[in-house]
Amino acid sequence: MFITNPFRGAFGLDIGDLALKLVQLSPAPSYSRDQRYTIERMGTIILPPGYIVNGEIQQPEMVRHKLLQLLGKDGHGSKLNSPWVVADLPEPKTFLTSIEVDMPPEQITQEDIDYQCQKHLPFDLTETYLDWQIIPPNEKTRFTRILIGAAPKITTDAYTYLLESVGLQPLALEVESLAIARSLMTEENPAGAILDLGGTRSSIIIYDAGGVRFSTTINFSGEIINMALTQQLKMSYDEAKDLR
């Protein structure tokens, strides 16, 4: 796959409220039987509070400087030369749902999807980017299950502009819960619930039959735990982080 891949060096980028994280993979040596890829590069840059709030980029120029630092394009450290990136969109700013339609997969059109989205999505379709995929059935049924992802154009455009401003070319912008589920769920564990405990927010993701069935953001996070520890145990913020 890597030999014929036109996007060699592509890497993943996680844009969070308190940190930017990247990972780049390369093919494992041919003699390695236990793994397909090796980690070529990984890194994290901490963001001060207020740069990104609930997924919204509040200080774009400051975030841009931090991203340049992470990529090694600020004149310090090793530079990441690949322009190809797959980034995630923040869970609070996206919407994910699965629906059933009474027609075979080969007959479903974009117009059908748009019609269904008018009934199921909390966004104005004229101000929303949509994507969808058919979920393979695990049993014979006349219904077709479709996974639909949506994000406001204003949020998606802001992330795209940020990436392009540092010389990156987005291959895809993914709903955060989908990326998490795909990295954790396997054929041996085809169903389950995932709790993603983040710095400023957390998510619960329900996965079953090859796809995400439901995801939601909850008002619980690592920062809330840190503040509770500092207040209740009268310790410093750094001590609370170490204890957690």
What would you note in describing this structure?
The protein has 244 residues and is an alpha+beta fold. It has six helices and 13 strands. The chain is 25% helix and 35% strand. The strands form four sheets. Strands 3-2-1-6-10 form a five-stranded mixed β-sheet. β12 and β13 form a beta hairpin. It is globular and about 60 Å long.
Please state roughly what percent of the residues sit in beta strands, choosing from under 5%, 5-15%, 15-25%, 25-35%, 35-45% or over 45%.
25-35%
Question: How many H/I helices?
Answer: 6
First CA to last CA: what distance?
Answer: 41 Å
Mean of pLDDT = 84
What's the SSE blueprint?
Layout: E1 11-15, E2 19-27, E3 37-46, E4 52-53, E5 56-57, H1 60-70, E6 84-89, E7 95-101, H2 110-120, E8 128-134, E9 144-152, H3 153-165, E10 169-175, H4 176-184, E11 192-197, E12 202-208, E13 211-218, H5 222-232, H6 237-243
Parallel strand pairs: 1-6, 6-10
Antiparallel strand pairs: 1-2, 2-3, 4-5, 7-9, 8-9, 11-12, 12-13
Short description:
The chain is of the alpha+beta class and 244 residues long. The protein is 25% helix and 35% strand. It contains six helices and 13 strands.
Keywords:
alpha+beta, 25% helix, 244 residues, 35% strand, 3-stranded antiparallel sheet, 6 helices, 5-stranded mixed sheet
